Amino acid sequence: MEINDLTPAEQRVWRAFATGTEVDFRTDGDERGPERTVRARVLRALLLNGPREPGEIAAVKVAGAHVTGVLDLRYATVDSVVRLSHCHFDSAPDLSGAQLGYLNLSESVLPGLSGARIRVDGSLRLTGCRFGGPVHLGGAQIAGALFLERAELTAADPERPVLRLNQITVEDELCAPGLRTEGAIRFSGARVAGSVNLEDARLSHPGGTALDAESLDVGANVLGRRLRAEGRIDLRGARIPGRLDLLRTTLSHPGDTALRASSCVIGELWLRQGPQIVGRLNLRRAQIEQLDLEPEMLPDEVRILDLTYTFLTPHEPVRRRLPMLARDGSTYDPHGYEQLTAAYRRSGDDHAARLVQLAKQRRHRTTLPWYGRLWGHVQDMAVGYGFRPLRAFGWLLSLLAVGSVAFALHRPPALKPAEAPDFNPVFFALDLLVPVISFGQEAAYAPQGWSQWLSYVLVLAGWVLATTILAGVTRTVSRQ
Predict the structure, then answer these.
(1) DSSP calls for 12-42
(2) Residue 341 to residue 360: CA distance in whole angstroms
(3) How many angstroms separate the first and last alpha carbons of the chain?
(4) Beta bridge partners of 287
(5) 3-class secondary structure, 472
(6) Looking at residue 421, what DSSP letter applies?
(7) What pLDDT, in 10s, does the model give residues 413-464?
(8) Nearest to 303 by CA among 275, 279, 271, 269
(9) SS3 string of 83-109?
(10) What is the DSSP string of 350-368?
(11) Strand, helix or coil for residue 204
(12) Can you give the pLDDT at residue 477?
């Protein structure tokens, strides 16, 4: 391409290329007038075979241009810097398979961007861009950072993802605070060496998946403070060694899963200081070192089957934590109770741990047949399944008092008066209540009438108390 074939605006860009000088059209005429218009094929010719000067670094640095036609760099190798900021593109650039040193499209308006399998040796900056169609960066390899701060993406076709980042590799960070999307983001299988920043982002895809990040592999953190999402956020199988920070987030997907973090490995999950999640929370089979969870954010449905965590913060009373275990459908999951018990024990609250174990036994009782439930009620009432052993002594003392008074008022006759020891109503009642141990009273005297029935009740109550106490002691020893 000869310079004589170029418009005055294009000549300015052509002459500036060899020395990397910036050309700013933002103060020249109408934003789509001839003073700002640059054909995409001119930019392509510059980037592939533009003039060079010894000792200078060639670069396309253009601001405020109106780019017409398709910037087609498919599978091209561009070794110069490309910065097309505050530009307006009539057509979506096609950079599929291209290899570039650095690409900056900040604050530009584009109908879309095709960049599947693109390779950028530096950073890819899309800060403040407004896309009226899909952005496809699937399989891209970016040696620096990917910047999407304040970018706005709207799907022309609601059935297609508005942003494709699946299988992308970013060797630095993905910075997207303030991102705005209307449509699905596909982020599955991506690998980011640093952190993913989605703070203050607004992700909207009502009735569908707003963010599909299955098997995401992050080297540090996923930051989503004040994130607002309408639609599902899917993090199944993600690996986040740092923290998944969802403080003050608003998550909504009515009638379906709002946040799915099942089978994840997460260092810290922060989920608090925000409104109640609308939809389901799925943490099944996840492994979390520290779960920072406020009960107020929990939705009506919580899936935590086989969830494993080491620490649970902030420290809350048992009555505020137990509803989380009861919201996992109608399935009894002992693992959830054991995890909560262990968390309280690590914090040194053994009393709370015992209350969780008591709640576990009561929940298990609902799954038993009628006779099992009946025996469970007896154990609960007698000694609280062994977690309230002092209650057994209360029952024992009460029954001992009743028996002692009854037998003192209605002394039973001796079987062999000449050989019988002196009658003692207290030890006679104790002989009936305590199995195995004998004080010689029960064998020497034979109650009659109503006192005989009372003796049967005391013997039966004694065996029940002894059995429940033994079961509780056994359960306590096994926990140790």
Answers:
(1) HHHHHHTTT-EEE-TTSS-TTSTTTEEEHHH
(2) 10
(3) 83
(4) 265, 308
(5) helix
(6) P
(7) 877 777 778 778 888 777 777 777 777 777 777 777 777 788 888 787 777 7
(8) 279
(9) EEECCEECCCCECCCCEEEEEECCCCE
(10) HHHHHHHHHHHHHHHHTTS
(11) strand
(12) 46
- CA distance linking residue 95 with residue 117, whole number of Å: 9
Q: What mean pLDDT value characterizes the chain?
A: 85
Instruction: Provide the 8-state DSSP code for 329.
Output: T
Buried b (16+ CB within 10 A) or exposed e, 418-453: eeeeebbbbbbbbbbbbeeeeeebbebbebeeebee
- As a whole number of angstroms, the distance between CA 473 and CA 450 comes to 35
Task: Give the closest residue to 205 by CA, choosing from 234, 187, 229.
Answer: 229
* Contacting residues for 116 by C-beta, under 8 A, at least 6 apart: 96, 97, 136, 137, 138, 139, 140, 164
The identity of residue 213, as a single letter, is A
Phi, psi angles (nearest 5°) of residue 351:
-65, -45
Q: Alpha carbon of 96 to those of 20, 46, 117, 119: distances in Å?
A: 25, 18, 6, 9
Q: How far is CA 319 from CA 295, 351, 460, 476, in A?
A: 10, 13, 35, 22
List Cβ neighbours of 409 (8 Å cut-off, separation of 6 or more): none
